[in-house]
Design a protein that fits this description.
Elements lengths: L1 H11 L20 H12 L19 E5 L5 H15 L19 H16 L7 H26 L32 H21 L11 H14 L3 H14 L30 E6 L11 E4 L1 H4 L15 H4 L1 E5 L5 E6 L7 E5 H19 L2 H16 L17 H16 L5 H8 L5 E5 L7 E5 L12 H6 L8
Antiparallel strand pairs: 1-3, 2-6, 4-5, 7-8
């Protein structure tokens, strides 16, 4: 049995050209639900601190900027700048030349993990063990597979709300572990979303009906409900986005109050919205390391545009918005200026995932759009209630009482909401890139330079095809039936 499991694990980890192939069933020998759980943990979940999927699009967004190669380790910064330039400047060949070739995080890694989910789903009925554990594991694998496909289709397909999702190309759907010589075509965006919806609905049902205690690193029915809310938000199905945000918040509505700390302005410590010591709002998380660089003020770092969104105390150079201190780790540049360097919301390991804060934001966005559509005052008030409740937990109320925001105009409220979502969810779970896409793919600008005085401006134009990532060249060479993005 152990030899068979080892063969399976080795096959799942094999080279980059077989991530849409599967292993023959006669090479699989697990016999108990414990074996299948180990497979799920080892091959369907990302490896802690080794695999990255929750932060890989930040370099495309307005939340980071180029800082050049000056300071104590300029040569190292130059290497980092060159590796990141292809993505930072939105080049079509970003996965061919950048970093020496295909970057596994965007395509290969999600499909490897989907393969692990498929093995569990197809083989689960063949093993011995508790029915409750089997059905719970089945729900977990379905939820996890949906999570990866939601990432993939938003990397390589048009946003669901742009154009016709029935015609726009998404990504190939591979839903079984069986061996086949077939070269898979790209399913439409709508087909991929229907698969995600089906997996999440069934995963949620199974996990809820067969509930078992788990760590924060494992998907449960709350995670399934939260992903359903996120998916429906992307689809602009406001009622369903509301419904599932409500379902999550009925069970866990807690937020971490950042001012309830001995030193809430410290950029380091044992508290944070993803810190296991203060798990108030964690639904699910995985350690991926610090975000947006970590280059000691060199190469790429948190953008001044993002930094300026965090409110100052009146007449002072200190921030009233404590997210500035709790969401960023600061460092010093060559002139000893202190600025946020990286996003790290657990103050330690770079945990990222799903939180209750997102549910408040999803619900607020849905209410705002319903207000814009119908003009019902109740919807505006409910959106403001969620936004103000979230902001109360983020502001430094030790010195200034929080004052509720009251915005009458629906369009102004939507713009305020978008800024609040950016502040709250910066640097995690690819939210900013996916939001920029579904907001209408507006123009972005990046300034790239190695040395001061050598600045080059790069523009991602309105509705640019680069808002949809190019499929890596190695993938196209392996499967010539795949159509490249424009």
């Amino acid at each position: 049995m152990k030899i068979g499991i080892l063969l399976l694990l080795c096959s799942l980890l094999s080279g980059c050209n077989d991530f849409l192939e599967e292993m023959s069933q006669d090479e699989i020998r697990p016999s108990t639900v414990d074996d299948m759980e180990q497979l799920l943990n080892g091959e369907a979940y990302t490896r802690l601190f080794a695999d990255y999927i929750l932060n890989v699009t930040e370099i495309f967004t307005d939340d980071i900027e180029c800082r050049g190669a000056v300071g104590w380790d300029a040569e190292s910064a130059k290497i980092t700048l060159e590796k990141g330039k292809w993505k930072f400047t939105w080049q079509k060949g970003m996965f061919d030349e950048g970093e020496g070739g295909n970057i596994v995080d965007y395509w290969e890694l999600p499909y490897r993990k989907i393969k692990g989910c498929n093995v569990v789903l197809d083989y689960l009925d063949k093993v011995e063990g508790s029915k409750t554990r089997k059905e719970n594991l089945r729900g977990e694998a379905l939820t996890l597979r949906a999570f990866y496909y939601l990432m993939l289709v938003n990397f390589f397909g048009q946003p669901y709300n742009i154009g016709d999702p029935e015609k726009n190309l998404g990504v190939p759907l591979k839903l079984h572990m069986d061996v086949t010589e077939e070269l898979f075509l790209r399913n439409s965006v709508a087909e991929v979303y229907r698969c995600i919806e089906s997996d999440l609905l069934e995963g949620n049902r199974l996990l809820e009906e067969n509930d078992l205690p788990k760590t924060y690193h494992r998907m449960d029915h709350l995670a399934a409900k939260a992903l359903l809310s996120r998916m429906y938000l992307y689809m602009e199905n406001w009622d369903k986005a509301l419904e599932y945000a409500d379902k999550v918040l009925e069970i866990n509505s807690t937020l971490l109050c950042l001012s309830d700390s001995d030193d809430p302005m410290s950029s380091r410590g044992e508290r944070g919205v993803y810190n296991i010591n203060t798990p108030d709002e964690i639904i699910w998380c995985r350690p991926e390391g610090s975000l947006l660089g970590g280059f000691n003020m060199q190469a790429y770092g948190v953008s001044s545009d993002l930094i300026n969104l965090f409110e100052l105390r009146p007449g002072e150079n200190l921030r009233l918005d404590l997210r500035y201190y709790n969401y960023f780790v600061t460092a010093y540049d060559a002139n000893w200026n202190e600025l946020p360097d990286v996003v790290c919301k657990d103050r330690k390991d770079g945990n990222l995932g799903i939180r209750t804060a997102e549910m408040y934001l999803n619900r607020a966005e849905a209410y705002i759009h319903k207000y814009l559509d119908a003009g019902v005052e109740e919807y505006r008030l409910k959106a403001l209630s969620d936004l103000n409740y979230l902001r109360q937990h983020r502001y430094d109320t030790r010195f200034v009482d929080y004052k509720d925001v009251d915005i009458k105009d629906g369009h102004e409220l939507l713009m305020f909401y978008k800024e609040e979502r950016r502040r709250e969810l910066c640097g995690e779970s690819n939210h900013r890139w996916f939001d920029l896409r579904r907001y209408g793919m507006e123009e972005l600008k990046h300034i790239y330079f190695v040395n001061p005085g050598e600045e080059q401006e790069f523009i991602l134009q309105d509705n640019s095809p680069r808002y949809v990532l190019p499929i890596p060249k190695q993938v196209l060479e392996y499967n010539r039936k795949l159509v490249q993005n424009p």
